[in-house]
Design a protein that fits this description.
2 copies of one chain form a homodimer. By secondary structure, chain A is of the alpha+beta class. Chain A folds into 2 domains: 87 residues, Orthogonal Bundle (Arc Repressor Mutant, subunit A), CATH 1.10.10; 61 residues, Dna Ligase, domain 1 (2-Layer Sandwich). In chain A, 44% of the residues lie in helices and 21% in strands. Chain A has 6 helices and 6 strands, in the order ααβααββββαβα. In chain A, strands 1-3-2 form a 3-stranded antiparallel sheet. In chain A, β2 and β3 form a beta hairpin. Chain A is globular. In chain A, 22% of the residues are buried. At the A-B interface, α5 and β6 of A face α5 and β6 of B. β6 of chain A pairs antiparallel with β6 of chain B, so a sheet runs across the interface. The structure holds a DNA duplex.
DNA sequence: TAGCACATTATAATCATTATAATTTAAACG
DNA sequence: CGTTTAAATTATAATGATTATAATGTGCTA
């Protein structure tokens, strides 16, 4: 886990930025919540637990910086807020999302799945793909279960 | 073209809404700019040419209404604004987009392309898909051409 | 024509995000 | 060690998109 931060530190240095305490605290929060899709405000509140003096603007700037360096991804699910997500290490492409229309849960798909589709697009539209975003909207397995049987105890 | 508006009128009536002059003007603007991806503000300014007394709030409400009825789609390319796009008639699914990182152009893909992928997702993640969003980021054919040869006359 | 529901307008309010200006930190140098 | 200088941070104000509010208008139905 430490090594993960060290590698991020190197990435920052490679672009001649420093890993300041505030930036480190922000990264730590992201590492501790890899599953979630935190908004800038969420991150801010969580970072305050570690570094209470931090300002909201700094969190925004840090997230912007990390986005630029492709350490995190900025996503937008259509509600008014941007969400931030740590990239899988070594992932060339953005992972996909399943957004449940019922309960609002957001699950992730790490598999690529789009290789074939990308081939078609590159050829047919003569478009050189750098990245992609794919989101499915529908009903997640949890809500399925809930409606088919009477909520079994967890 | 007239028939297109008539059909939209029927869709509204079916949901017990009326096609008021303001709503008609808004729809007309969307029809006249099917290629573009207009923001609410863009639509507002264009509608003012036809119906100068219209208010911004009405445009927002109309676009929201049309989105609800699946007549238009609300998209978000990550810049701060929502954009609105008339659905292809009879399209069950949302069309895809190619966003050029160089010139910012947004092209559309009407083909589905995702049938196979959706089958996999529904089965493997037990997720009942209702809709999807797919956007590719990369370099469009125009920018390709521009950089490989010296801009030929249009 | 009176009553009533729906639409619309102008304006204000809200919320996320970004810019500003003053202050702090810290690396670099002598 | 002090000094200098650039980058980073902070608190706050400003901006810009969107939504809510309250007052007014429109047009059917009886």
């Amino acid at each position: 886990m430490e090594t993960r931060i060290d590698r991020i530190k190197k990435q920052l240095h490679a672009a001649s930025y420093k890993l300041t305490p505030q930036r480190e605290a922000t990264v730590r929060v992201l590492l501790d919540h890899e599953e979630d899709h935190l908004s800038a405000e969420d991150v801010y509140l969580l970072v305050k637990d570690i570094a209470p003096e931090i300002g909201l603007a700094t969190v925004y700037r840090t997230l912007e910086l990390l986005t630029e360096l492709k350490i995190v991804d900025k996503i937008n699910f259509g509600d008014g807020v941007s969400r931030f997500d740590l990239r899988q290490e070594g992932a060339a492409h953005f992972h996909h999302h399943l957004v449940c229309l019922e309960c609002g849960a957001v699950d992730e798909i790490q598999e690529d799945l789009l290789e074939d589709v990308e081939g078609v697009v590159e050829k047919r539209w003569n478009f050189q793909i750098k990245d992609h975003r794919l989101t499915f909207h529908g009903i997640c397995w949890r809500c399925h279960d809930r409606s088919s049987q009477d909520s079994p105890e967890k």
